[in-house]
Amino acid sequence: MTKIAASELILNPDGSIYHLNLRPEHIADTIITVGDPDRVDTVTKHFDTIEFTTHKREFKTTTGTFQNKRISVISTGIGPDNIDIVFNELDALVNIDLESRTLKKTHTKLDIIRIGTSGSIQSNIPVDSFLISKYGLGLDGMIHAYECEHILEQPIEDAFILHTNWNHRKARPYVVKNSSELEMKLKSDQTVLGFTATAVGFYGPQGRVLRLPIKNADLNSKMDSFTYHGTSITNLEMETSAIYGMSKLLGHNALSMNAIIANRANGTFSDDPKRTVEKLITYTLQKLVE
User: Which end of the chain is more exposed for a tag (fewer CB within 10 A), N or C?
Assistant: First the structure.
């Protein structure tokens, strides 16, 4: 079999994968991703046992058990570029033999659940809601580095481009659906299904103005009013579409769980965002072991 070159699959001296600093035995088949490294401990404080932890740059990983289920919690940092690193390296840990640098004959599928914060752009989704992303709308362009057309929802993309009069200098928006299997497992009457837009940045790319003028200043209002067969864009954040795209391409299940801590349509912000995130963490953990 063809070996993957050292320049493409980079390992540390101890044999761990380059950025995440992990070896295959360090991760579970169920993985929770969070943006903030400090939030890893907020999740794993609920664990019954801790077997391993490591921290390199913005990537912190802890693996342990919750009610006898082995789970890893990994911080990704912010943005689609970090998702590209984390998901490629997670997949390499389970689907590439790191010693021989060859692909394994049997594919391992991971269940990956994002627990993150987000802002609603629809007035009917209040702060402190739990939102499951049915679709991820990528405004970042990262997934176009890969052969990805077979996983994309092109009719929705085309409708969005037409509705927003999308600037041709920006990357083509892409749309990827979630894992139906994980959606069925984690949804309940405590959650709402949404259509999540993923921006490449926090300020200008999300329509925020400090000192710099932005192109397409009316983009947010156009996103607010976009509908496709009755589905509207519900919230805006910085990872979901990249998570969905990389998971689909690599053959993993992924679901994005969003704690809605702001509503930009109403101009409101949660009185206690930490409490909302904590409630979403406990909800997600319990659903994973049911």
Answer: C
Rounded to an integer, what distance in angstroms lies between the CA atom of residue 20 and that of residue 36? 14
- Find all residues with CB under 8 Å of 202, minimum gap 6, and list them: 78, 208, 238
- How many CA atoms, within 13 angstroms, populate the side-chain half-sphere of residue 228? 21
Torsion of CA 239, 241, 246, 249, to 10 degrees: 170
Q: Could you give phi then psi for residue 73, rounded to 5 degrees? A: -120, 125
Question: Where do the H-state alpha helices sit in the chain?
Answer: 37-44, 80-95, 154-164, 180-186, 219-225, 240-250, 273-289
**For residue range 162-185, what is the model confidence (pLDDT) as tens digits?**
999 999 999 999 999 999 999 999
Put simply, whether the predicted model's pTM sits higher than 0.85 gets the answer yes
The reported pLDDT for the residue numbered 220 is 87
d(CA 31, CA 35): 13
pLDDT tens, position by position, 195-249: 999 999 999 999 889 999 999 889 988 999 999 999 899 999 999 999 999 999 9
Complete DSSP assignment for 262-288: EETTTTEE-S-HHHHHHHHHHHHHHHH
Say if residues 132 and 183 touch (Cβ distance below 8 Å).
Answer: yes
Q: Would you tell me the crossing angle of helices 37-44 and 273-289 to the nearest 10 degrees?
A: 50
Residue closest to 243 by CA, chosen among 140, 170, 156, 119: 140
Beta-carbon neighbour count of residue 144 at 10 Å? 15
